[in-house]
Amino acid sequence: MNTYVTHLESAIDGTHLPADRVQTVHEGRPLWVRYDLDAIRKNVNPTDFQNRPPTLWRYRELLPTSDNTEIISLGEGMTPLLKARRLGEKLGLRDFWIKDESQLPTGSFKSRGFAMAVTMANHFGLTRFATPTAGNAGGALAAYGARAGAEVYVFMPSDTPLVNQVECTLAGAKTFLVVDGLISDCGRIVRELSDEMGWFDFSTLKEPYRLEGKKTMGLELAEQFGWELPDVILYPTGGGTGLIGMWKAFAELRELGWLKSDKMPRMVSGQSDGCAPIVRAYEKGERFADEWDEAATCATGLRVPKAVGDFMILDAIRESGGCAIAACESDIAGAMREAISTEGISICPESAACVLAAQELIARGDIAPDDRVVLFNTGASQKYAGFGDQEQISIHLNKPVDPKTFRTTYSHN
Amino acid sequence: MNTYVTHLESAIDGTHLPADRVQTVHEGRPLWVRYDLDAIRKNVNPTDFQNRPPTLWRYRELLPTSDNTEIISLGEGMTPLLKARRLGEKLGLRDFWIKDESQLPTGSFKSRGFAMAVTMANHFGLTRFATPTAGNAGGALAAYGARAGAEVYVFMPSDTPLVNQVECTLAGAKTFLVVDGLISDCGRIVRELSDEMGWFDFSTLKEPYRLEGKKTMGLELAEQFGWELPDVILYPTGGGTGLIGMWKAFAELRELGWLKSDKMPRMVSGQSDGCAPIVRAYEKGERFADEWDEAATCATGLRVPKAVGDFMILDAIRESGGCAIAACESDIAGAMREAISTEGISICPESAACVLAAQELIARGDIAPDDRVVLFNTGASQKYAGFGDQEQISIHLNKPVDPKTFRTTYSHN
Q1: Contact, A80 vs B115, CB < 8 A?
Q2: Residue of A171, A345, A391 with shortest CB distance to B175
Q3: Who has the most CB within 10 Å: A130, A178, B23, B397?
Q4: Contact yes or no for A410 and B336 at CB 8 A
């Protein structure tokens, strides 16, 4: 099979660019990968996918690779779509689901994007990679870069969770902590040193293929629901690639005629009020989002003060009839514990912000009790080790263990 | 479908016990779950499995549940089987594979066992759960217990990795750190307080169903290799449930006549010389393993001084023509980094011990260069945050970033 890709298209002005060589951005803004959907429709049926191995590569006709592309894979994709009955009841929802991206390589949704982007970079002969990261992207590039045999440089704020730092160094990435810096500062360092260092910049939406990897979240969701989309998607939004990618996936599926109904989900972008540039722009009715000053949130993946794909996020939200909504920063940690202990699913703080967003939208009447609602859990809570300490009780072996310890320490329900 | 389970069988003396009620051990030793394999053979074909969703529940005829059992699931199973060409080359192996169990819920293979054991405990109406843990088992019971709506108590050594502690508390488990204790001390506390506290003891092999969950590693491996087993399986061995479970799976598949060849893999048990009771018993030709004094290893999952299923592990190793071998403790951390940075796969220290074991067996000629060898990566390295710190380089924004930083700090290859 050759690729069905026809060209790349500038998201800001529609300019066409050839896809057979390395591309980055156009006028500083992202590129869409475009496909010959008529040819795909003739050659594939959605039922073909279900007989293929359970990875995101099952959707290969809708991906930028061709038969002679070496796939750089860690087995990513087909994450579980779990019914969350108990948490749904607490929220007042009867049809509430969690798509658990924590079960991907490196424990986060970032693996989808980097599997695709690293596969394409490797295909084009690139061997030195760099990325700024708020946390999980660095670990994913480190892992896929190692899998490709490339050299990887990662730049992250110095207060990025320890697990994110460690996963980079363990995978052999050259890992830099930017003191008092945010991901935007890290991005600037990568950009300014690109010529000197000769590395390829894998920043969010600065190359066209991470988006195509993230798109597979939407393809999987459609397949898992029998090619019928839910009413509402709750998505934690930092750089927003996943939201943009899913919206692209749904548009492609609709044009292919593979959806049982043309009804599109309302896309809800969840942020924290400690860093809510998309929410602010949405509320002001603007297409571009100003940089957020003094961004601060425990949900490190949401600590993105300025998104290069802001207009793509805001376009998708508005076209879908969704919205952007900010959770109260001080409620996120509690919502995360509540969600994990209610369902056993390893909800990250970014997704906990979306649980709070859902509460607000339900209270407002913007989500109805019978709506089919899907929350994306974008990463494993295990990667945020600072959230749970000092709750463990010590037992000393040289003292007899008194069962009362268990009764008095914890008040039983 | 009703269950194909016929009875439980004592592993130590063959006594039959009924499977329709809660069972624990017999004479202090584990129980096998036995099935009507003739009936299964008549009603199922191995090709049936490939059309079912990619979770371990696709093997339902070979599992203890029936149609009226509520499945307590977080979407576990069908972990990737990844070719590890580059690490294979370093080892001198041409057909080397890694089965990556780090992509399960809670980031470890423990989820297989607890998905099954919690499903059965819930089926029998149990609602208060306890387990001792060396690390990952606690996190898995906490998650599946939360998913079942049960109350969970976890006991772990006080120096268990922080991520393991946090994942328990986040999932709402009552989490106790036993100061200067090992998993055996934790196990004693759970056992001694069982009557008083009324909790069900999920200790390794103290109930019959964790083993059936772990068995699915063997079933998946067989399916992924087209119902033909590899030559060698490298398995890090603490309590050994996975090794025992896989050997049981292979025996069942052989009796069902589903394997293309009767050739069984050689089962290799990897330990650390800081805690190697199985290796010592293997070398002495004994069927039972004495407790290991002053167990100490950075591979916390291997820090199991006494395994209740010791004779089951040693029987499997010997029947298979395999062996038990201890890695040098001081080499494990380095082998882990080497493996992760070579393949991008998130190899845990326990599995790194098995990489070292493989080196030794290759050097001895016990593994041939063309053998098909499978290493089980039993958990995510992200859960061992202590392994990678102090390698990150700080950059200060108020000082100009000099590209020499990148050149001098890291010597490029």
Answers
A1: no
A2: A391
A3: A130
A4: no
Alpha carbon A303 to chain centroid, angstroms: 13
Residue A117 domain-assigned?
Answer: no
Q: Is there a domain that residue A198 lies in?
A: no
CB contact under 8 A, B82 and A74: yes
- Residues on chain B touching A387 (C-beta within 8 angstroms): 166, 170
CB burial class (10 A; 0-12, 13-18, 19+) of residue A111?
buried
The residue of chain A with its CA nearest to that of B51 is A51
The shortest C-alpha distance from A403 to chain B (Å) reads 7
**Touching check for A217 and chain B: CB below 8 Å?**
no
Q: What CATH number has the domain bearing residue B251?
A: 3.40.50.1100
Contacting B residues, span 161-200, partner chain A, CB-CB under 8 Å: 162-163, 165-172, 174-181, 185, 189, 192-193, 196-197
**B117 Cβ under 8 Å from any chain A Cβ:** no
Check B185 against A342: CB less than 8 A apart.
no
Range of B367's domain? 81-107+211-384
What is the C-alpha to C-alpha distance for residues A145 and A121, in angstroms, rounded to an integer?
10
Residue A187 lies in a domain: no
Q: What angle do CA A348, B139, B112 make, to 5 degrees?
A: 105
> Cα separation of B324 and B270, whole Å?
6
Residue A408 contacts B, CB cutoff 8 Å = no
**Tally of CB atoms within 10 A around B180:** 11
Within a domain: B223? yes
Partner B contacted by A358 (CB < 8 A)? no
Subunit contact B100:A104, Cβ cutoff 8 A: no
The number of beta carbons lying within 10 Å of the beta carbon of residue A229 is 24
Backbone conformation region of residue B156, classed left if phi is above 0, alpha if psi is from -120 to 50, else beta? beta
A148-154: which pairs have CB atoms within 8 A and are 24 or more residues apart? A148/A72, A148/A118, A148/A119, A148/A121, A148/A122, A148/B344, A149/B86, A150/A118, A150/A121, A150/A122, A150/A126, A151/A127, A151/A199, A151/B412, A151/B413, A153/A128, A153/A129, A153/A190, A153/A197, A153/A199, A153/B406, A154/A130
Which residues does chain A have within 8 Å of residue B344's beta carbon, measured at their own beta carbons?
74, 105, 142-148, 171
Contact between A76 and A116 (Cβ < 8 Å): no
In this complex, the residue of B75, B151, B401 whose CB is nearest that of residue A103 is B75
CB contact under 8 A, A346 and B143: yes
Q: What is the pTM of this model?
A: 0.96
Per-residue pLDDT of chain B (413 residues; tens, 9 = 90+): 689 999 999 999 999 999 999 999 999 999 999 999 999 999 999 999 988 999 999 999 999 999 889 999 999 999 999 999 999 999 999 999 999 999 999 999 999 999 999 999 999 999 999 999 999 999 999 999 999 999 999 999 999 999 999 999 999 999 999 998 999 999 999 999 999 999 999 999 999 999 999 999 999 999 999 999 999 999 999 999 999 999 999 999 999 999 999 999 999 999 999 999 999 999 999 999 999 999 999 999 999 999 999 999 999 999 999 999 999 999 999 999 999 999 999 999 999 999 999 999 999 999 999 999 999 999 999 999 877 655 778 888 877 777 666 654 553 33
ipTM value: 0.95
Count of CB atoms situated within 10 Å of the CB of A178 = 23
Give chain B's domain count. 1
Please give the torsion angle defined by the CA atoms of residues A362, A363, A369 and A371, in that order, rounded to the nearest 10 degrees.
Answer: -20
H or E stretch including A248? Answer: helix A241-256
Q: Does B394 touch chain A (CB under 8 A)?
A: yes
Asked if B213 reaches chain A (Cβ–Cβ under 8 Å), the answer is no
Closest-CA distance of chain A to residue B156, Å: 10
Distance CA A351, CA B410 (A): 36
CB pairs under 8 A between A and B: 255
